[in-house]
Design goal:
Aminopeptidase; alpha+beta
Length: 145
């Protein structure tokens, strides 16, 4: 059985392990300060938000998201920034449930939509994303500062 809930203080180690695996999946390395800051932000729940998924009581999935205004809509939008499921739990509906929970959360706060990015080569995730959302064909550019 999959359950979705906000982060709890006792989730710190399991959450950080999954977040580190997510960062590694995208071939990045983050210093400890990044994880500490994110944890503080998620626990305060003011600017950034997180939900976790448990499968039979074990924490196996995380999602991080935030709300921001939109220049082209009257309502705010929700950016689902990070989504990760432990490899042993993939294919069991964990990511689908996390996405649905973020959508419910955003809807309850009057958001117009939820959106996210993934790498073009992330075929496994894209199979799910193509089932639950619309790919509008945008390409992301970044300007490092």
């Amino acid at each position: 059985m999959i359950t979705i809930a906000p982060l709890e203080p006792e989730d710190r180690e399991a959450w950080e392990n999954l977040f580190r695996a997510y960062v590694a999946f995208y071939e990045r390395v983050s210093p400890q300060e990044v994880y500490d800051r994110a944890w503080r932000e998620f626990r305060s729940g003011e600017r950034m938000h997180a939900l976790v998924a448990r499968l039979d009581g074990e924490l196996v999935g995380i999602t991080h998201f935030l709300i921001h205004p939109s220049t082209s809509a009257l309502t705010d939008v929700c950016y689902l920034q990070d989504l990760f499921t432990a490899p042993r739990a993939r294919g069991k509906g964990v990511a689908r449930e996390l996405i649905a929970a973020v959508a419910d959360w955003a809807r309850s706060r009057g958001c117009d939509r939820v959106y996210w990015h993934t790498k073009e080569t992330n075929a496994t995730a894209r199979r799910l994303y193509d089932q639950v959302a619309v790919n509008r064909g945008f390409i992301q550019y970044q300007l490092p500062l």
